Structure formats: C-alpha cells, structure tokens
Amino acid sequence: MRFADLALARRLEASEARACADYAEVVARLAPESRATAVAVGSGLAVFAGPGGPLSRAVGLGLRGPVTAGELDRVEGFYRRLGGPSQVDVCPLADRSLLSLLGERGYRVSELNTVLVRALDPLEGFAPLPPGLDVAPAGPEEAETWAAAVAAGFAGDEEVTGELFDVALALFHVGAATAFLARVGGEVAGGGVLTIREGLAALFATSTLPAFRNRGVQTALLGARLATAAARGADLAVCYTLPGSGSQRNVERLGFGVVYTKLVLSRDLSA
Asked: Which domain holds residue 142?
C-alpha cells in the first residue's frame, strides 16, 4: 500500500485540479454561454464548469501552507459572480486552516470521494480480455457514440438527459484525454477516460451500460487503460470512487489501494 504523504497528495490534487480546469476549458468552447472558466487560488484552482457542472469545485487548497481568509474570499467571490454554490475539495493532508475557515463560514459536507492509487510497470502483464469483449481507444468520429454510452451507463435505469450527454461529450474532447470504448460481441457496452500528466495516469468516467453489467466490462476498461498508461511511461495510476462502492471493489482487485478519502464541502452563496 502506498503511504499518503504530503508530496503524493500534492501530486494527486494538482492533477485533479488541472483535469477540472481542462474540462471547463472544453465546456467554454462548446457552450460559451456557460461562462465556464478557472482561476488560480493559493495552491489550487477554483473551477466553474457551467451551472450545475459536476467539476465545478475548488481543488488543491491548503497543500502548500495555511489558507487565508482572503483566499477563501476569492473562491467565494468567483462562484458568486458566476451564480454557483461554493464547493471546496478538502484533502485530509491539507493545512488545518482550510477546514477551520470552512467551518466558520457554515460549509457542510456534500460528498465523500475515496482516492486510490497503484504503481505501474512497463513490464507488467495484464490479463487477456474474455472472448467477445474488446476495448480500444475511440476515434474522433466516435465522440457521440462514446458520450451516449457513458451517459447511459451513469443514468442507469433513468432516461439520459441532454445535460448528462453534454457532460460526457465535453469529457471526450478534453485535450489530454484518451477515451476508450468497450464492445461485447460488437455492441457498445461502456466507456472510460485516461489522462496522463507528468507520469500520473488518471482513470475516470468509467461507465457500463446496464445491459452489460456483471460481464467484466468495467474490469476490462480499467485493465486496458492501465496497460496503455504503463506503455506510455506513467509510473502511477489514480482513480476516484464512492466509499465502499462496487467500483472501489473492482479497482482494488486490480491492485489499487486507498491513500485517503477526501471531503467536498459546500456553501449556498445565494442566501
């Protein structure tokens, strides 16, 4: 198991902050009316990816010293101008001043995310895919196919909304991202994303269509991206799951271990 020291936390949180900002940049290009943007604050980034955007959060605060009231004022002013709530990721290795300030201002826990990592070795072998299951990078012409599959997997038994499809489509177009499609017997079964920054591979947006669950699709998507990341020289992989979820169980089976669980604290600025 990898020891979660401050150096590792800085590496992981900086990568996630950059990923959120890159996503916001794509949203701004595809939907200028969203006002999506990002701004540096202290050791982190405050990101707005449109109203209700899932990646509209401040990430990486408090990892290079105390957080000041002025820095939190900047975060809140940023979200107030753009019309969204203030949401702040809190890494457990962040300076204690961050939690203290958020508590003083009435922030409440809105989400928990478990962060898991595993080492990568270019000589490591990965299990072959089961017969009939194929995973490969999606081509530019498959953007909408990929987005529809990922959105449908996250929607589950609910109808896919236009907003959810747009979120997935923006993920596909992030410059640092490689989108993967899984097919079972030639039918699209799911998808996921891989990014690599400074040797750190991030696996996210892993989604399986309801009709293909419990058939090894998620494991195949994870394995294919790990193999690709290792071949491209990444030394470490990270993924994020809900605590105790089936997704956490699946990634732990592939050698990931928990390094920490972090909070998302939120405050409604409209009151």
From this structure: 133-234
For the chain, the distance separating the N- and C-terminal CA atoms, rounded to the nearest angstrom, is 44
pLDDT at residue 1 tops 70: no
Query: What is the tally of structural domains in the chain?
Result: 2
Question: What's the pLDDT score for residue 201?
Answer: 98
Q: Is residue 255 part of a domain?
A: no
CATH code of the domain containing 164:
3.40.630.30
14-41 mean pLDDT: 96
Pairwise CA distance, residues 266 & 90, whole Å: 11
Rounded Cα distance, 156 and 160, in Å: 8
**160 and 87 co-located in one domain:** no
Indicate the burial class of 152 (C-beta count within 10 angstroms; 0-12, 13-18, 19 or more): buried
Distance CA 198, CA 15 (A): 9
The DSSP result for 93-148, as a single string, is TS-HHHHHHHHHTT-EEEEEEEEEEEE--TT---PPPPTTEEEEEPPGGGHHHHHH
Structure confidence at residue 9 (pLDDT): 97
pLDDT in tens, 148-202: 999 999 998 899 999 999 999 999 999 889 999 999 999 999 999 999 999 999 9
In a domain, 123, yes or no: no
Helices (H), the chain: 6-30, 69-82, 96-104, 143-155, 162-172, 217-231, 246-253
At 244, the amino acid letter reads G
82 and 140 share one domain? no
Q: Are 181 and 225 in contact (CB under 8 A)?
A: no
Q: Confirm whether 208 is domain-assigned.
A: yes
Are 169 and 216 members of one domain?
Answer: yes
What does pTM read for this prediction? 0.93
Determine what percent of the chain is predicted with pLDDT higher than 90. Answer: 89
